[in-house]
Amino acid sequence: MENIVIVGSGPAGLTAGIYAARAGFAPLVIEGMLSGGQLTETAEVENFPGFAESVSGLDLMMSMRKQAEKAGVRFAMDAITSVDFSATPHKLEGMSKQYEAKCVIIATGATPRWTQLPGEDTYKYRGISSCAVCDGNFHQGKDVAVIGGGDTALADAIHLAKICATVTLIHRRDTFRGTKVLVDRVLATPNIKTLMNTEVLSFEGDEKKLNALKLSNGEVLSVSGAFVAIGHDPQTPFLKGALDLDESGYVRTDGVKTSVAGVFAAGDCANPLYKQAVVAASTGAQAAQAAQEYLSESGS
After folding, report:
1. pLDDT tens string 165-178
2. Sign of the C-alpha dihedral, residues 54, 57, 58, 64?
3. DSSP output for 92-130
């Protein structure tokens, strides 16, 4: 039986592992289907503290993993398909084997929704991004587009308008789904143009990068970048019935504590607002410390 099992190997999971290992608990990290998490698919990261120059997401996560291994974190290449948190020890069913743990940290992240339109796979991370805060600075002083109509799309457009020459906000409906204060702010920002009742038909570009969007209104919109803001899906289906989840599937937490004693959640799977590696890492550290306190109080 393990003291601490951490499900997920992104910034939250690895940071939790580093903190737990340094406290002497030799945690086991279940890596999941994508070792290193979503950040490994990001071409350049410029806003993670400690890096004066941009670093690839893959290199950042490899460095974090090496640090975790050096601290004493153990890894299992497996994916959890179901859990039983009804009693202690907690049971986790993997694709390869079953695990038992006194304490569990859920750090499975959330994946962005993509449009699945022609050209998206070709230019993903080559002009197409799902994170305006992460990648907006690469398009400083240029023309960009945001695809979506909810709070995330509205907030992205407002953020990008401070960096880029123009922002075209493309929404397939006739009204925005976001909150009124954000809608009003978008409409009051002079370099944000809104295209309502309009859909992107395809992403166009050359052999290197995206340079245009083909739209349903017949327009071909020249852009340096396109930001897809149509939502995220937390990687929590295996937790249904075991933990309290909100209507979107995010783990409900009090800090990092979940509805089950001895089970904690960190990173994007419990945070619908801030999809940032540094925020995920912070909650990973908090979850590890909360797990240590739980194990100490329970006499483990």
Report:
1. 999 999 999 999 88
2. positive
3. EEESS-EEEEEEEEE---EEE-----TTHHHHBTTTEES
Which pLDDT band holds residue 43 (cuts at 50, 70, 90)?
Answer: low
Read off the tokens for 107: 């750090």
Distance CA 129, CA 210 (A): 11
Closest to 73 measured CA to CA, from 21, 10, 31: 21
The pTM of this model reads: 0.81
Give the model confidence (pLDDT) of 86-103 as tens digits. Answer: 999 999 999 999 999 999
At residue 300, the pLDDT reads: 65
Q: How open is the CA angle 115-116-117, to the nearest 5 degrees?
A: 90
Concatenating the DSSP letter of every residue in 214-225 gives: EETTS-EEE-SE
Is there a contact between 97 and 85 (Cβ–Cβ < 8 Å)? no
Q: For residues 104 and 7, what is the distance between their CA atoms, to the nearest angstrom? A: 8
β pairing state of 110-112 and 28-30: unpaired
Summarize the confidence of residues 130-153 as an average pLDDT: 92
Active site residues: 131, 134-135
Sequence-ordered alpha helix ranges (H) in 100-259: 120-123, 132-135, 151-161, 180-187
What are the percentages of helix, strand and coil residues in the chain, rounded to 5? 30, 30, 40
